[in-house]
Amino acid sequence: GENVEQHPSTLSVQEGDSAVIKCTYSDSASNYFPWYKQELGKGPQLIIDIRSNVGEKKDQRIAVTLNKTAKHFSLHITETQPEDSAVYFCADHGGYNKLIFGAGTRLAVHP
Amino acid sequence: SQTIHQWPATLVQPVGSPLSLECTVEGTSNPNLYWYRQAAGRGLQLLFYSVGIGQISSEVPQNLSASRPQDRQFILSSKKLLLSDSGFYLCAWRSTPGAGGSFAEAFFGQGTRLTVV
What pLDDT does residue B86 have? Predict the structure, then answer.
């Protein structure tokens, strides 16, 4: 069945450093790869996504890269700030109607 | 614009009591609807999803059930709560094919924190 593996589960960085979170998917038919950010006590919100016909997408300090051959995609955050501290989730279609999430990465940015 | 409402925000229920959590979506038609549960410090576990009125797919065997009596209403229920049902419950929606399609993001409600005592 569909599966999304995400790592690391926790990540601690100093303010200004970069953070990278990686997800591996199993469904070859997957064609849309979103990343969500969940702040404490709230629901997740989309921060960036990428379609399968694109290798990289950037939005200011965040970027997502996709390697379809290896079936993995990564979230890159540069110049991290304390407000980037949150839980980040990758997701996969899982046959379109389902939306399966990775296990999440708790990012802590220390001033 | 589309909005999603989920209530209540917090709930404390005794073991063995019933449960009913409601989620409604405004500003869209025929959305896919989802219920997730999140244990403390853990990931998002997909419980149920629905592609239309009366159509429910269950992902995890448990003592919970879901219903979709109207196009934009999704209800999570239990007849008898267990301690293990405690968690943060999230409702979400996303567009179906032809209306945003397979590239559509999911929009989440603010969640219900359920504590079973």
Answer: 94
